Amino acid sequence: MFNFFKKKSDTHFKDLTTDLHSHLIPGVDDGVQSMEEAIALLRKFSESGYRKVITTPHIMHDFYNNSEGELSKIHADVVKRLAHERIDITFELAAEYYLDDHLNERINDPSAQFLTFGKNYLLFETSFMNEPFYLAEFIFKAKSRGLNPVMAHPERYNYLHSDSDLLQKLIERQVLFQLNINSLSGYYSKQVRKFAHTLIDKKLIHFVGSDCHNTTHFDTLSASKKTKYYTKVLELPLLNRQL
Ligand SMILES: [Fe+2]
Predict the structure, then answer these.
(1) What confidence tens digit (pLDDT) does each residue in 111-168 have?
(2) What is the per-residue burial (b if ≥16 Cβ within 10 Å, else e) of 91-126?
(3) N or C: which end of the chain has fewer CB within 10 A?
(4) What are phi and psi for residue 149, nearest 5 degrees?
(5) What average pLDDT does the chain have?
(6) Residue partners of 142: CB distance under 8 A and separation at least 6
(7) 168 CA to centre of ligand 1 in angstroms
(8) How far is the CA of 55 from the centre of ligand 1 (A)?
(9) 1 C-alpha to center of ligand 1: Å?
């Protein structure tokens, strides 16, 4: 009897019920393109056991020129539709900010409002190839205004793979790391998978996310969820559980 309850409790603790990082606001980036697709995908998240999805559309100057206000309006429409369809999931909005000189300037503006999640967490991504010149400066400025920077999919940045000094600096500056589930199956590349394993072995992952863009993408997550390292990352004290 005792074992039965213990097992149930452990399972509950290890389940990842909140997804952080996806592109489910219709028609604003390279994610879902219609309300129907957004609803179909959120139904899949709900049926897979997720209780909450915090979606993070791209905000990238000159590429995805999304404003926080416009994204909030479309997000509200999706929330209404979810209620209408009686889909049992909480759907929240944040954003994935691309770090370029525009963002590095904008973060100086005290009137600029950012789409954050949880404890003022700000999800940001960078170029895959080169370390942004102003990475340290941006982190300092974000923290100075009370934001907690979360680096999206650090395992995907080539410039980080062989730069342990930079990795150490990011840790010292208290940047949090969000791993993409699909990095664990080799979906992006073998190199990315290898670095994902290193980050998990070093216990450096704080959040796990699907980075889901469409239905096909969602279906590929199951291969990653069967890997040894997915079990291993769920054993870390992930902050998803506090969202
Ligand atoms: Fe993304």
Answers:
(1) 999 999 999 999 999 999 999 999 999 999 999 999 999 999 999 999 999 999 999 9
(2) bbbbbbbbbbeebbeebeeeeeebbbbbeebbbbbb
(3) N
(4) -70, 135
(5) 93
(6) 107, 122, 124, 148, 149
(7) 24
(8) 9
(9) 44
| Cα 150 to Cα 113, 117, 136, 162, 187, distances in angstroms | 17, 10, 13, 20, 22
Vertex 208: Cα angle to 18 and 130 (nearest 5): 140
CA 77 – CA 34 distance, rounded (Å)? 12
Residues 218, 180: contact at Cβ < 8 Å? no
Residue 1: per-residue pLDDT: 40
Q: Please give the sequence-ordered ranges of beta strands (E in DSSP) within the chain, or none if there are none.
A: 18-20, 52-55, 58-59, 90-93, 96-98, 121-125, 148-152, 176-180, 207-209
Centre of ligand 1 to C-alpha 193, Å, is: 17
Cα(5) to centroid(ligand 1), Å? 38
Band of residue 16 on the pLDDT scale cut at 50, 70, 90: confident
Cα 9 to ligand 1 centroid, rounded to whole Å: 32
150 alpha carbon to ligand 1 midpoint, in Å?
12
Ligand 1 midpoint to CA 45 (Å): 17
Ion ligand 1: protein residues whose beta carbon lies under 5 Å: 96, 211
Catalogue all structural domains in the chain, each as residue range(s) with its CATH number: 15-242 (3.20.20.140)
pLDDT of residue 29: 97
